[in-house]
Amino acid sequence: MPLSLHSEVLELVFSEPFRIARTEESEAVRTVALGLDLDGARGLGECYPLAYYGETVDTVSAVLPRLLGSLEALGPLPADRGAVPAWLERSTFLMTDVLGNHGAAKCGLDMALHDLAGKALGLPVSAVAVVRGASSRDKVVEIQGLSADEVRGRLLGNLRPD
User: Fold this and answer.
1) Prediction pTM value
2) What confidence tens digit (pLDDT) does each residue in 127-136 have?
């Protein structure tokens, strides 16, 4: 089943002004919410484009189709759950090969892919974390809250989530 992407630009108004060292919006921000569909499941992600890096919601919208096209080579979530971390790592290679920059759009898709992986393992996305290599091709993924045997069992499809 091919990947499909739904996106929506949101304006989020702050309840209090927000200020940081470099000039950014202090009253509200525009962000892009993503829904990435694969094999009947939906992964959610979000892109916060930073003007400091030349990113806007318009540039995110412009590059998302190109990045999504690169992810078609991923194929479905692996049936062998032990292959899920490599599947996630490969997504980073594929996106970087097609577009070297634009971290906001890549981040949103990466979040959505991690959400899909967590759902495939029967875990919340907060339990699937990149512990090393988040901005590189050499990612190390950790699954929190489970023993090594439980992780191994779930990845192999032998255990069911509680």
Assistant:
1) 0.74
2) 666 555 555 5
CATH number for the domain harbouring residue 97: 3.30.390.10
The answer to whether the CB of 117 falls within 8 A of the CB of 92 is no
- Would residue 162 count as lying in a domain? no
Amino acid at 154: R
Which of helix, strand or coil describes residue 92? helix
Handedness of CA 130, 58, 69, 98 (dihedral sign): negative
Residue 26: domain span? 4-155
- What region does 53 belong to: left with phi over 0, alpha with psi -120 to 50, or beta? alpha
Cα–Cα dist 109/140, whole Å:
18
Within-domain flag for 69: yes
Q: Which helix (H) or strand (E) holds 5?
A: strand 4-13
